[in-house]
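Note to self: user wants both folds in one dump. Writing first protein now.
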Amino acid sequence: MLDVSRLRVLVAVARTGSVTAAAKELHYSQPSVSHHLARLEAETGAKLVQRVGRGIRLTDAGRTLAERGAEILGRLDAAESELSAHVGLDQGRVRLAAFPSALGTFVPRAASLLAERHPGLRVSLTEAEPPEAVRMLRAGYVDVAVIFRYDPGAEEDDVRARRLLDEPSHLVTAKDSGPDLAAYADAEWIAGCDRCRQHLLEMCERAGFSPRVSFTTDDFVAVQALVAAGLGVTALPALALEAARNPDVRTVVLPDSTRYVLAATYGEPPEPPATAALLDALVESTGAGVHSLTVSS
């Protein structure tokens, strides 16, 4: 039988990359972390870590156990959360992962609503782009994942999604312009995360050109600063502009550029009470239903 505490130590070492960082994350001493690893090796009969210079790295067996251990710990944490929720909303816990512009806009409103209605309910928030948020959801690290899609018909296996809002993309430039992407076929372009970059490439392809991407960053504040400095143009979703707006850029809504924002859960219904309460708060914080979000230019 594997010791859960020692398994948690191995997972922390795999996630952080060192004994020192794992000790800091777990609030253990470094010798204590090393002791737990040694005991786990004795329990499993396998070499899990090896020394490299002044540090360590996981062996193949260590990586395999850490990956499975992360899934096990996630499910244990999820079970604890669900049991707490059944005790009562005023004594439970609910965990949410969301992409940055959602965390910068409607997620705090939802958390505030939840705190007002259920003061004893603990809410934890984690920043994660949609692919990572869905992985966390499936592993049991979070109860709800706020994600986005550009294809409203796309679905994740075993993941149920509630649509929160529709938001268009905006062409972002240093000077006033129209929504004609083709007018910027010869411009330098600034791209964002992998999904947003792919969406930009597809929009430009429909406009008849392939953009020359000179800068890439998923920091929407930095993107706008680059545009304001005259270093290129970009396309940003409405939430990014609502979260942080550079006064020196100009924006115009792009046609046929909708991004769909959803709240995803995993597992069979009904939702645990705390999860259901969070979903209701998210819907209310985005305007009590699906709507089109726009920002002024």
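First done. Writing the second protein, which came from a different request thread.
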Amino acid sequence: MSFDTRLLTGVGVFGAVMEAGNFVRAADVLGLTPSGVSRAVARLEQRVGVRLFDRNPREVTLTEEGARFHAKIMPLLAGLEEAASEAAGSAAFVGGRLRVSIDPWFARMVLAPRIGEFLARYPALTLDLTSSNYREEMMSGADVAVRFGPPDESSLIARKLLDVPVLTCAAPGYLARHGVPATPHDLMHHDCILFRDPQTGRPFTWEFQGDNGAIEIKAAGRLVMDDPSAAVAACLAGQGIFQSFAIGLDEWLESGTLTTILTEWSGEQFPLYAYHPSRHMPPAKVRAFLDFVQRIAAT
């Protein structure tokens, strides 16, 4: 079977451009001239029959076809890198650069305070973190992603890290002014801080699970947010009632600056998953990170 080696070269240049952000920086990384990078990309576009980049003097952006091509070939490039590492006898070595796309609440409240342990354990590793709770293109430029919520159908490998309880809470000052809801239905008469579902763009429906089953409440409020840290800060300031992941709330609950309500209806749990490209065995750095995150999440 014949193989066009120029295709592999072009894909490598394509990946370098995506990593660097433009042709000039990619040329520096590859030891080529910018015009050489441009010609290699043009040959690749001619070979695959579609335009991969929209170009301007300062940056390049993926076309729709380019984004699909990127999603397909990056796991293959990572597989080649892994194969080369295994051939060199370094499959168990945790080093290099690990790119992680991670939920911002988990990053701030759980990972960041403990990240020193991970870096101390693997001194040859560099960690590149991007915070986002959106799933669209979450693996673009990432080796592993961490998101709350059930997994979508995709070619990615999804590893469940834990189930996180969901708590309904408010500041004591808010409850002193507006009263304490006795049932979930009482929330219809309260100011609720709503959180936007990153997948639908609409506020989440509030779910409560009690001894007699689950009920859903369409909570109402004047604040809709997509940053969990900002939403908790607004709740602490007495702006309304908020449903939050229990993980990360201990400090405020123990100090009394937040109070949980409707505790007999607090049976809801939300899963936390880690994702990586579909492969028989992910690189050692990915495995090490997943094991570390699962351990600290459980504690």
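Dump finished. Worth passing along: The chain has a mean pLDDT of 85.
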